[in-house]
Write a structure and sequence with these properties.
- The protein has 265 residues and is α/β, with parallel strands linked by helices.
- It has two domains: 196 residues, Putative cyclase (Glucose Oxidase, domain 1, 3-Layer(bba) Sandwich), CATH 3.50.30; 53 residues, no CATH class.
- It is 23% helix and 22% strand.
- The protein contains seven helices and 15 strands.
- A hairpin with a 2-residue loop joins strand 5 and strand 6.
- Helix 1 crosses helix 2.
- The longest helix is centred in the first third of the chain and has 13 residues.
- The chain is elongated.
- The termini are close together.
């Protein structure tokens, strides 16, 4: 058995549109934080802490070290993650949208299929005919619950501004094609499933047509689907013959959740 990591990290050093911060409390500083948190629960404790009293001192610990602690301040759309219908709108298919902790787990461990779309340019959208052609090229017929991974190579831009501006999007016709085949989850190695902001916003400003803005995401209000964003290393996979594991972190009432997506060969 071989396991291939298809995930990008939550990295506070990488270029991101949204603010990401990881507060790292070191082993040496941990004991001070422990005392501060514990003693701050009462007014008496707060005063005693300010006056220099400590419940646990560094001298009480092995090597004078406490436990490390990392506190992550990050949107759920940073790092590899699954988006569900609540992200797209308050309703999907006429019903209240579902949040990420409601993603059926049986959908998240299924056969995987990789489709090569590296030829598509950033301004373009991958449509149904592109999907059909890619499937014909690898001689594969989709079956219900397959997890379809779309490879563009954009993950190699991760860490810099081009990651947010140079990738193709997914056309609504491609989403329809996949859903009609019984697909519940598809994934991309790009920042998002819609074309980059610079193309959508430019066309919207020129036409004032709201359909130019996030058509793939907003389509989730009409038909329910789950998609994975920010995949990586898809070039390491064969076209099919592997399993995908993409179980989401169980976070309450969010439109997306982080996942350590892996392929199992």
């Amino acid at each position: 058995m071989q396991i291939i990591d298809l995930s990008l990290p939550i990295d506070d050093k990488a270029f991101e549109v949204h603010h990401v911060e990881i507060e790292r409390v070191t082993h040496k500083a941990g004991v001070e934080k422990f005392n501060r948190v514990l003693m701050s629960k009462t007014l008496k404790g707060k005063l005693q802490y300010l006056l220099g009293k400590r419940i646990v001192k560094k001298e009480d610990l092995p090597d004078e070290e406490f436990l490390s602690l990392e506190i992550v301040h990050s949107p759920v759309h940073i790092g590899t993650h699954l988006d569900y219908s609540f992200h797209y709108g308050s309703k999907s298919e006429g019903r209240a949208s579902k949040t990420a902790e409601e993603i059926p787990l049986e959908w998240c461990y299924q056969d995987g299929v990789k489709l090569d779309m590296a030829h598509k340019k950033p301004a373009e959208a991958i449509n149904a005919s592109d999907i059909e052609a890619a499937l014909k090229k690898i001689n594969y017929t989709l079956k219900p619950l397959d997890i379809v991974l779309i490879q563009t190579g954009a993950d190699k831009l991760y860490g810099g501004p081009k990651y947010f501006s140079d990738y193709p999007g997914i056309d609504v016709s491609a989403i329809n094609f996949l859903l009609d085949k019984g697909i519940k989850i598809f994934g991309v190695d790009t920042m998002g499933i819609d074309r980059p902001y610079r193309f959508m916003l430019k066309e919207f400003m020129e036409t004032k047509d709201p359909k130019k803005l996030y058509p793939a995401h907003f389509y989730g209000r009409k038909r329910e689907f789950i998609h994975i964003e920010r995949l990586a290393n898809l070039e390491k996979l064969p076209s099919f013959g592997f399993k995908i594991n993409c179980f989401p972190v169980k976070i309450k009432c969010t439109g997306a959740a982080w996942a350590r997506v892996v392929a199992i060969l």
